[in-house]
């Protein structure tokens, strides 16, 4: 009996592993408006033709004869979440289902968030259904200001979704960095500078020891590409003085690749951020003085930053594990507070692609990867939703655990209910 079960299981697994992946079939996507993210701008009655995982053409007129068609009110590139914890926390309040951070670990900069990524996590499909085809996933700092290594993934929900491991290092400064470093900002900056020294003098410092001034040997090795300027560093900070200190540090270390997460008071130093070409990843809903680092927070932050020439990406920082999808709503509110519509769309597409070096993503142009979303209305309107999502040219299923539950309970056969529920 046992041998029979094992044999059946082996056959089932073999069949599963041998099942072909969904094919990227040719299709023409027709939109009353097609937002390209390029110099073509927004096309009226546009046609996007995709084949073999790539965009073949973007223009106006009729679709190629005989080609399958998808019709929509709006067509856009696949949206990109520039900061999330989607896929590494199924249930944030349950430790066994939350891999965002490790407060009890002796390691910090070496923690690789991709090791905890679950493409089957419920929020993946939810995020995809709202038009997001790519996500930048960051670990959370729990024991030190060095959270670890973030990664880039698609939202297909398939094995192999991570397409760039160790894409960036994530560091927390400001109030949180201070609390993780002994209780003050000077302590946090001493830890950061000490970590840089551990890397710069790695050979001598770790010749006979496993620990440096701040980092373990493994942490120093993991942090080395960031210190050398070969890896992007995301730094969380909100207060003006913290942003100034980061820019001072960047001037001292011009080779560093830096982007700032938060920047609630960024509008106050927008000109300097623009001059130094430092992008920011902001939550445009963060408009109240929820802490002493946010006293100058305003709904116009994103608009003022963009007007000064700062590259702006918009995300939802309030619930980054399950609600990354709300970035479209946040971008819409930013438009209501002075951010131009095109700039808001770029904050969800082209700017995140540029920050993380995602070549061929965030735009609709011939040769680009065929991440395309068809919408039933303006993407930044809260009542609009995608009707079709393509990732690398593959039409993705438009269902999630929530939609399955909705459909299940909408069509219940009430005759099967117990007697107590029939009256």
TrEMBL record:
InterPro entries: Amidohydro-rel, Metal-dep_hydrolase_composite, Metal_Hydrolase, Metallo-dep_Hydrolase. It comes from Hyphomonas polymorpha PS728. Keywords: Hydrolase, Signal. SUPFAM superfamilies: Composite domain of metallo-dependent hydrolases (SSF51338), Metallo-dependent hydrolases (SSF51556). Residues 281-385 form the Amidohydrolase-related domain. The keyword Lyase does not apply. GO terms for molecular function: hydrolase activity, acting on carbon-nitrogen (but not peptide) bonds. Residues 1-23 form the signal peptide. Pfam families: Amidohydro_1. It comes from the Bacteria. The keyword Signal applies. This is Amidohydrolase family protein.
């Amino acid at each position: 009996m046992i041998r029979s079960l094992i044999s059946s299981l082996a056959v089932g697994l073999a069949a599963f592993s041998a099942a072909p992946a969904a094919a990227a079939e040719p299709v023409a996507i027709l939109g009353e408006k097609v937002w390209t993210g390029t110099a073509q701008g927004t096309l009226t009655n546009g046609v996007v033709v995709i084949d073999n995982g790539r965009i073949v053409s973007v223009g106006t007129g009729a679709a190629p004869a005989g080609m399958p068609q998808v019709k929509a009110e709006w067509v856009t590139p696949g949206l990109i979440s520039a900061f999330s914890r989607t896929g590494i926390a199924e249930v944030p309040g349950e430790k066994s289902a939350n891999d965002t951070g490790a407060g009890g670990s002796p390691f910090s900069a070496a923690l690789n968030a991709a090791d905890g990524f679950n493409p089957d996590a419920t929020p993946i499909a939810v995020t995809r259904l709202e038009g997001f085809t790519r996500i930048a996933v960051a670990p959370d700092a729990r024991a030190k200001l060095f959270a670890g290594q973030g990664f880039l993934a698609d939202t297909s929900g398939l094995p192999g979704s991570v397409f760039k491991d160790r894409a960036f290092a994530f560091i927390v400064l400001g109030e949180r960095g201070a609390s993780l470093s002994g209780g003050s900002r000077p302590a946090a900056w001493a830890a950061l500078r000490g970590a840089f020294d551990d890397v710069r003098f790695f050979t001598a410092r770790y010749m006979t020891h496993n620990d440096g001034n701040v980092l373990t040997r493994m942490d120093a090795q993991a942090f080395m590409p960031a210190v050398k300027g070969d890896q992007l560093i995301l730094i969380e900070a909100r207060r003006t003085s913290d942003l100034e200190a980061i820019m001072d540090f960047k001037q001292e270390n011009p080779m560093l690749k830096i982007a700032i997460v938060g920047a609630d008071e960024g509008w106050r130093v927008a000109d300097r951020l623009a001059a130094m070409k430092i992008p920011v990843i902001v939550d445009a809903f963060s408009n109240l003085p929820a802490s002493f680092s946010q006293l100058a927070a305003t709904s116009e932050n994103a608009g003022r930053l963009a007007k000064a020439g700062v590259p702006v990406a918009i995300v939802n920082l309030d619930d980054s594990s399950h609600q990354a999808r709300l970035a479209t709503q946040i971008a819409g509110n930013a438009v209501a507070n002075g951010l131009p519509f095109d700039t808001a769309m770029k904050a969800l597409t082209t700017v995140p692609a540029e920050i993380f070096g995602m070549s061929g993503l965030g735009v609709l142009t011939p040769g680009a990867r065929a991440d395309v979303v068809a919408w039933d209305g303006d993407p930044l309107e809260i009542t609009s939703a995608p009707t079709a999502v393509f990732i690398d040219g593959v039409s993705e299923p438009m269902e999630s655990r929530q939609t399955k539950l909705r459909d299940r309970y909408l069509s219940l056969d009430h005759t099967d209910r117990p007697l107590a529920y029939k009256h």
